[in-house]
Amino acid sequence: MCGIIGFTGLKQASPIILEGLSRMEYRGYDSAGMAVISPQNRMQLAKVSGKVAGLYEKTDNGAAFPGVCGIGHTRWATHGAPTEANAHPHVSMHGQFAVAHNGIIENFVPLKEELLAKGYTFQSQTDTEVVAQMLEDCYEGDFQKAVETVLSRIEGSYGFAILCADDPGTIFAVKKNSPIILGLGEGFNLFASDVTALVEHTREVVYMEDGQYAKVTPDSVELFAEDGSPLPLKVSHVSLSVAAAEKGGYEHFMMKEMMEQPEAVGRALSPRIKGGEIVLDDFRLTKEDFNKFTKIVITACGSAYYAGLAGKYAIEKFCRIPVDVQLASELRYADPFIDEHCLLIVLSQSGETLDTIAALKECKARGATVLAIVNVVESAITKLADSVLYTWAGPEVAVATTKGYTTQLAVLYLFAVYAARVLGRLDAEQYASVIRELQALPEAVRNALKTDCDMSNLAQYFKDAQHVFYLGRNTDSALAMEGALKFKEISYIHAEAYASGELKHGTIALIEEGTPVVAVCTNPALLEKSLSNIIEVKARGAVVTAVVPEGLPGSEAIEGYADHCIKVPALRDVFASIAAVVPLQLLAYHTAKLRGCSIDKPKNLAKSVTVE
Ligand code: G6P
Question: CATH 3.60.20.10 occupies which residues in the chain?
């Protein structure tokens, strides 16, 4: 996701900021910028669309921007395209304040309207620019007071770095649901959103907590609570190498990204649930549009296709519109039954998958309305779609997708409930209750991550297997496919998913003494059926790992038969996959690790497949 750095000291700030931004490049970004206060107390600003290398060039490696206090940013676009104008920092109308921001200001629309009415003009489409203008608007000579006033008025999640030309040498750092780490030095202080940008300069750090802000000068760092009361600094020593720090201290990006899932799912959902209602600001389909759709087709590749298969159950259940899920590589050549009464949902983490783009074009040419659910802002698919819902998962580096998949599920669930409400298929009470369930999903994902230790132990049983089978019914059958894919793509052990009732019509002969079987049983209505399938494979020697919701009545029988039982948070059946996938991801990870596989870059696979 985006990166922030701020430096104030006796040395030149620009080279330190540029180097810090380079250190954070691994996180992924699409534009960069920095602001440095000149010796004449003027705000100097440089921004580029594209790489930090462009910023080095533009500022003559920093030499063109003299000054000892400044901030920098790498941006991963959310509000507005990754253009130079939208890159951070954003400077207030009269150049007084510069702001770099990670996160989202949820109430930026009314705030912007207020400022427009007062005559403020805006250079960008971002939510962040509002903060710079608000600071200028309420500034009466006291930098800290202006920061406090603005913080009291904004809603959302943020990490900020804020400069004021009137107060050179001082930077404010603010944290709410977006990391900021203060680095303590001698004759300087700095801070960043990522410890990798600090470790070259200091290993004494303070991890800011949500709701705190800090006043950083060359010889002091003062920490304050939301209400302005001073707080003591809790200093930690960082011993991580830079390489380890890039992965957030985890050994692999895949683990880091799995652990980021609660926040990522929260980012996908919470800004779109306001006052008990789903509000899709970035969505252009009307009630009339929904009424004309007689079917929905979901198309995607790989894990995104499996997310589509799971999402189908939620959409059909809530909206009662038939949903057909098709592999993009097949759909494009299928001469599909698609016309103007079809809503095509295109799922893609990268937004650049060639087969998915081709299927989209084919269906669009036949009259379908296209909704894209995509992670990468301004990617090719977003340009072709009629409407886009971003998953806001943040950059995903590991080839095997994890947070990309769970955020796709989150947005599909959100869409299902939204569409059902628009279509009048949920009354106010049902709607309120489902919204509460959606709001609980990030916490459910967080709790599912607690299976990490169990899955690491279980991987011992899987690491020498020849074949592994994944079973499930309904949404669990879609989840079994994702579980099997994750497992085989990184561990290189053959894994196959079957709809539980179908194995006996197929390759049950491959189940023999000791064959590992993962049985996903999250649907309360289908517990008995799942149990008979478990008994069926156990009779042939399978070693069964069952995934069951915590406290589900009737699950004791499954626990009695299964060799291992993994408990996941109980959720409504059509939402269950988002938590139940987590132990399956962890099992794949730990098995691959025990086998010494290249986890983040499995052989022969690419993160984004832009060829047919
Ligand atoms: C590749 C990746 C998969 C991914 C698929 C679709 O095959 O290895 O992890 O699920 O592409 O990618 P997309 O970016 O369209 O979601």
Answer: 3-245
Q: Is 607 a catalytic residue?
A: yes
Task: Tell me which H or E stretch contains 10.
Answer: none
Helix or strand holding residue 110 (H, E): helix 108-117
Report residue 179's pLDDT band, with 50, 70 and 90 as the boundaries.
confident
pLDDT band, residue 1 (cuts 50/70/90): low
For residue 455, what pLDDT is reported?
97
Mean pLDDT in residue range 515-541: 93
Q: State whether the beta carbon of 144 lies less than 6 angstroms from ligand 1.
A: no
Mutate to test the pocket of ligand 1, among 609, 611, 612 (most ligand atoms within 8 A of CB): 609
Residue ranges, comma separated, of all CATH 3.40.50.10490 domains in the chain are: 247-439, 448-612
- Phi, psi dihedrals of residue 568, rounded to the nearest 5°: -120, 160
Fold for 3-245, please state it.
Glutamine Phosphoribosylpyrophosphate, subunit 1, domain 1 (3.60.20)
pLDDT of residue 612: 62
Which is catalytic among the residues 2, 301, 319, 342?
2
- Name the residue with tokens 């070693």: 543
Distance CA 401, CA 552 (A): 29
What pLDDT band is residue 128 in, cutting at 50, 70 and 90? very high
**For residue 21, which amino acid is it?**
L
Write down the architecture of domain 448-612 according to CATH.
3-Layer(aba) Sandwich (3.40)
- Look at the domain 247-439 and name its fold: Rossmann fold (3.40.50)
Reading the block at residue 139, the tokens are 């500034």
Length of the chain: 612
Question: What average pLDDT score do residues 527-540 get?
Answer: 92
**Ligand 1 atom closest to the CA of 605, numbered from 1:** 8
Rounded distance, CA 535 to CA 479, Å? 21
